[in-house]
Amino acid sequence: MSFFKRLSRTRTDSYVEDYGDNKYRDEKYEARPTSSRRTNSQPTTPATALAPTEPDSKDMYSRQQGPQEAYGATRGLPNGVNGSTGHNALPPMNPVPMAPIKAEPMPDLLTRAFNEAVRPYSDKIEQLESQIADLQSYVEQMEQQRAEVHSWIDKRGLRPDVPPSIAKVMDSTTPDSANTLNAQLDRKITIVNFDLHRLQDDLNDSISASHFASAMSKFLPDITRLSSLPTGPRYAFDLILKLGGNLNSHGGLDTGDASDLAARRDFYGKLDQAMEEVVRRRFQENEEWAVQREIKRIEKTAAYLRNFGVEPYFPGTLDLMRRELEYRGQPAGTPPRYQ
Questions:
Q1: Residue 113, CA distances (Å) to 105, 109, 122, 316 in order
Q2: Over the range 84-100, which residues count as b (16 or more CB within 10 Å of their CB) and which as e?
Q3: Residue 326: its pLDDT value, please?
Q4: For a disulfide at 253, which of 47, 198, 307, 308, Cβ 3.0-4.6 Å?
Q5: pLDDT at position 310
Q6: pLDDT tens, 27-50?
Q7: Quick one: pLDDT at residue 186?
């Protein structure tokens, strides 16, 4: 019991001494030793306590003074960036060069205003171009249909019977139209002549020359049309002579009927007028033509008809052909007499 009383009194006195002596407290904390292993025999002063001391070689936990890195130096990241290699480090990747972005120019207000003003007209032009394309397609379709119709007409030999407007188109668009028209006209003249002779035989009586001439005269407009085509005058010349020959083969010359003879003269006069125009066009084509032989051919028929009192026979045509022969015998540069 007395032991605890002494111990408590001793501790009480020590506390009073620690807190009561401020000088001792300041020296205790200011002169704090730098190491717990340093002996207490060497007194320390505040100047020596703050000065840096070299580490003891025997200190177990001595610190190594390593080189300090500069401020802002790049440190390796734990994920492997900037060259560090960690467990989860990503492989180094080369940066993909990006295409340079071209700066768009500022919009031109004048150009924009012009485009806005022209836009209605541009739309109208596009609409008209579309309509033109449609019409062109329609025209091509119509031309194809027209060609098919013309082919159908020619297959049936109806070219001489078509209206003048269609005939003009067919003659200008169909290749070798003169040869085609000549073949159809020749065939048609032959059929009509055969039908007239058969009718005469069925009636057991001759058909008057005026009726026969009237049937043959209907071919003169088509022959004139034929003579206006290229190479057409050559075919027209032969067809006109064929019309005259058909009337001659009709007979009735020996009857001496005045009306019949007058009808023949009138018909031969029409043929002569049509033949003169054909001969002029044929000479203008400068084709190789045996004119002298054709003259003799006509003169032979004229001499035969003269025996029955039918004359003249192609008088204008013969005169024109003779003058052309005379012109060919003259020096070059002299115009033909029939012009």
A1: 17, 6, 14, 79
A2: eeeeeeeeeeeeeeeee
A3: 84
A4: 308
A5: 82
A6: 444 545 554 444 444 444 444 444
A7: 93
At residue 180, the 3 state secondary structure works out as helix
Maximal C-alpha separation, the chain: 204
To the nearest 10 degrees (0 to 180), the angle between helices 258-284 and 220-227 is: 10
Radius of gyration of the chain, Cα coordinates, nearest whole angstrom: 67
Cβ proximity of 180 and 159 under 8 Å: yes
Domain of 192 in residue numbering reads as: 177-329
Domain tally, the chain: 1
Hunting for tokens 């007028």 — which residue is that?
273
- Domain assignment present for residue 114? The answer is no
Q: Which amino acid is at 278?
A: V
Q: Residues near 18 by Cβ (< 8 Å), separated by ≥ 6?
A: 24, 25
> Do residues 229 and 181 touch, judged by C-beta distance below 8 A?
yes
Cα–Cα distance for residue pair 211/314, rounded to 1 Å: 21
Domain assignment present for 65: no
Q: Is residue 14 part of a domain?
A: no
Tokens coding 90 = 């990503």
Task: State which residues of the chain have pLDDT below 50.
Answer: 1, 10, 12-29, 31, 35-59, 66, 70-84, 330-339
Calculate the dihedral angle through the C-alpha atoms of 312, 314, 319, 324, rounding to the nearest 10 degrees: -170
Contact 170, 159 (CB under 8 A): yes
The Cα–Cα gap between 318 and 272 comes to: 9
Q: For residue 46, is it within any domain?
A: no
pLDDT of residue 33: 52
Contacts of 291-298 spanning 24+ positions with Cβ under 8 A: 291/321, 291/324, 291/325, 292/325, 294/237, 294/321, 295/321, 295/322, 295/325, 297/241, 298/241
Residue type, 229: L
What CA–CA distance (Å, rounded) separates 156 from 176?
17
pLDDT at 64: 52
